[in-house]
Design brief:
- By secondary structure, the protein is mainly alpha-helical.
- The chain has one domain.
- Helix 2 crosses helix 4, helix 3 packs across helix 4 and helix 6 runs antiparallel to helix 7.
- The protein is globular and about 60 Å long.
Length: 390
């Protein structure tokens, strides 16, 4: 009965949580802390802090951790399934629909989705920048990161910059933040250690298997696992990582990529569910639902392994000043990564005319200042695009 409640609660959140990762954490707090009282406010804040430290989608990891505390590993899995299922189904059906529709005859609304994605990412950058770059030192890290990636862009370079930003954070940034503390079920350290080792084994073994076996399924699993393993700062940051994996390789056309990303901002649930759409529309992936499931599971698996693995060790991690200072630098660099992605591919693939720019600034106005829900702004922009682009 407890496991069923975990799944139903997560499913409810998966159907109603609009607005992106930050909004999701608000919905989670209302449901898990205020209404059901499954976790205290301090323990919830402690959990959010941990998930901000780890790579992966923070809101999904918080849900997994709460499911873990209530029902063990199976509870964590059911929490993820419930929260992810609605958005994944919508995006898969959207991708399957595009496979039987001549996209060239529907450029107006596809372009509308790309244009509104510009406004959504701009709002995400502004919100993350205010929180993660509140001083000149961290803002400088963000800008330098962005400049480097605008000139030289690669997944390896992004990892290198994140590591260097963490080192800079240790030596040059100050952390006066005192994290809240309360008890939370953490699991056994031995089990946690196994999950952490498995995370790194897959991260380094999959590229080797990919080169040896040359199987399509392993190629996709490796690309999406790596993207999910290297995302710091929330769902929006997965955009440049996934784009680098699927567009240059020819797996997904950039127009389809941006259209799917735009739609993912109009529906509830985690932005990482966007990976299921890419699995459907990719030119060489296994057909239909199979490809979607491979990409979806691969993208979320690192965050699952990390949260189950790290939770038992969090008490020691949260007290380590080096780790906290390193994360200040890494989080600032994340803002720079997203800022570079804002120009390419987000801006360059969507804004070609004064009409495009007009829709972007109106969408941004409604999102940031009028606080209109993102799903409503996306739907409205798509409808307006039928008129504007005639």
């Amino acid at each position: 009965m407890k496991l069923f409640q975990i799944f139903l609660t997560a499913l409810k959140l998966g159907c109603t949580s609009f607005g992106g990762p930050i909004a999701h954490l608000g919905y989670f707090h209302d449901e898990y802390v205020t209404k059901k009282k499954w976790i205290s406010a301090h323990a919830y804040a402690d959990l959010v802090a941990l998930c901000q430290f780890l790579p992966g989608p923070a809101s999904s990891q918080v849900g997994m951790a709460i499911g873990l505390s209530r029902g063990g590993i199976l509870g964590a899995i059911l929490s993820w399934v419930g929260f992810t299922l609605p958005s994944a189904i919508i995006l898969i059906l959207f991708g399957l629909g595009l496979s039987v529709i001549d996209v060239t005859n529907h450029k107006h609304w596809l372009h509308g989705l790309k244009v509104v994605a510009v406004a959504v990412v701009a709002q995400a950058i502004l919100g993350m920048g205010k929180k993660l770059c509140p001083d000149k030192e961290r803002l400088t890290i963000a800008i330098i990161t962005s400049v480097i990636l605008l000139f030289f862009s690669s997944a390896f370079l992004q990892i290198t910059i994140l590591v260097l930003s963490g080192i800079i954070g240790i030596y040059f940034l100050k952390s006066n933040e005192v994290l809240p503390h309360d008890s939370i079920h953490k699991g056994k350290k031995s089990i946690g250690f196994i999950f952490l080792i498995l995370f790194f084994i897959l991260l380094f073994l999959l590229p080797i298997l990919r080169s040896i076996l040359n199987l399509t399924e392993i190629q996709y699993f490796d690309s999406f696992y790596r993207a999910g393993a290297l995302v710091f700062g929330g769902g929006h940051v997965v955009l440049p990582l996934l784009q680098a994996e699927v567009v240059p390789t020819g797996w997904v056309d950039n127009d389809l990529f941006m259209a799917g990303y735009g739609l993912s901002n109009a529906i509830p649930g985690p932005l990482f569910a966007f990976s299921s759409f890419l699995g459907v529309v990719s030119t060489t992936s296994p057909n239909g639902w199979t490809g979607a499931m491979i990409c979806l599971v691969a993208a979320f698996l690192p965050s699952f392994l990390l949260i189950v693995g790290a939770l038992p060790f969090w008490e020691q991690m949260r007290k380590n000043q080096w780790i906290r200072k390193a994360m200040l630098g890494i989080n600032a660099s994340v803002v720079g990564i997203l800022l570079a992605a804002f120009y390419n591919p987000v801006w360059t693939s969507a804004v070609f005319s004064p009409k495009d720019f007009a829709l972007v600034i109106v969408g941004f106005l409604f999102l940031e200042f009028w606080k209109i829900p993102s799903w409503l702004v996306v739907i409205t922009t798509v409808l307006v695009s039928f008129v504007v682009y005639i």
